[in-house]
């Protein structure tokens, strides 16, 4: 969600003759921002959705879908967690947890697509000699935050799936309780019942 909202997917590069650092340009999925050296920042939301490049449109769609799927995965995993009583322990509860982990893995893969797409465009434009140096960009902080989120989603989803698969069915080992000890005729408990 943070990577989706940040306007720092691409930031201006200061190379060659473009050494004027009085302003920095940030480009994101939802807006462009110009940051002055004085600390002033002006942001402008994109006017038209249809006029946006395809990578921005796909990035918007995929990051919003991932945010919603992540919330669904959280709810599914909580319902199937061992510490909740929404569903009785057993195979069904384990399957629900595995489904939640699989949704987390799907989220990680889906959010990786726009991140790598943007990184590829930024890198190819940076090394393209036909692109003027004033229009060259570098990868912004949102890409790195997105990659960290991807790693956490993939790792967490795999961990949830693996831990849930490795657990045996709890109903296969029923707990056996012994009958409570009765006091003797004199009202005291037998001393052999104490540990």
UniProtKB/TrEMBL annotation:
Protein name: Claudin
Compartment annotation: Cell junction, Tight junction; Cell membrane
Annotated family: Belongs to the claudin family.
The keyword Transmembrane belongs to this UniProt entry's keyword annotation: yes
Xref: InterPro entries: Claudin, Claudin_CS, PMP22/EMP/MP20/Claudin
Organism (species): Hylia prasina
Chain coiled-coil ranges: none
Swiss-Prot/TrEMBL keywords: Cell junction, Cell membrane, Membrane, Tight junction, Transmembrane, Transmembrane helix
């Amino acid at each position: 969600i943070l990577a989706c909202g940040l306007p720092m997917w691409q930031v201006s590069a200061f190379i060659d003759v473009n050494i004027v650092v009085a302003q920095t340009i940030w480009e994101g999925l939802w807006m462009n921002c110009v940051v002055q050296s004085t600390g002033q920042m002006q942001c402008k939301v994109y006017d038209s959705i249809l006029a946006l490049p395809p990578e921005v449109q796909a990035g918007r769609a995929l990051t919003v879908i991932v945010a919603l799927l992540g919330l669904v995965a959280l709810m599914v995993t909580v319902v199937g967690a061992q510490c909740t009583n929404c569903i009785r322990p057993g195979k069904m509860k384990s399957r629900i947890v595995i489904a939640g982990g699989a949704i987390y893995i799907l989220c990680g893969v889906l959010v990786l697509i726009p991140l790598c797409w943007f990184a590829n465009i930024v890198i190819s434009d940076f090394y393209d000699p036909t692109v003027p140096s004033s229009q060259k960009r570098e990868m912004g902080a949102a890409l790195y935050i997105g990659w960290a989120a991807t790693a956490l989603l993939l790792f967490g989803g795999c961990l949830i799936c693996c831990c849930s698969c490795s657990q045996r069915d709890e109903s296969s080992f029923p707990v056996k309780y012994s009958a409570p000890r009765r006091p003797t005729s004199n009202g005291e408990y037998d001393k052999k019942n104490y540990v």
